[in-house]
Fold:
Amino acid sequence: QVQLVESGGGLVQPGGSLRLSCAASGFTFSTYVMSWYRQAPGKKRELVAQITTNDGSTNYADSVKGRFAISRDNAKNTVYLQMNSLKPEDTAVYYCFGSSWNQQSWGQGTQVTVSS
Structure:
């Protein structure tokens, strides 16, 4: 069974940092492109960051460039999202997503709340 489990969310003050983790099982993790999405109340789910399989190249939403960093550890079957200089606008449920040529999988999400 393909499974993605997020952790690391919580309440943080503006300007603070959080590190999200996504633990994967049930598939060959190294062959999957991994991404983080987020969804705020009343808004569509949006792509935040993505990391590829071969060269490990990354791309980010303009709103998080310079503040967030995605990384992966294939030996641990885990993808991370380091979030710095957090803003109230970053408040959302953050979802881990993995895709291969024939499959895609979503995690259940973890809540991130940025508030003073």
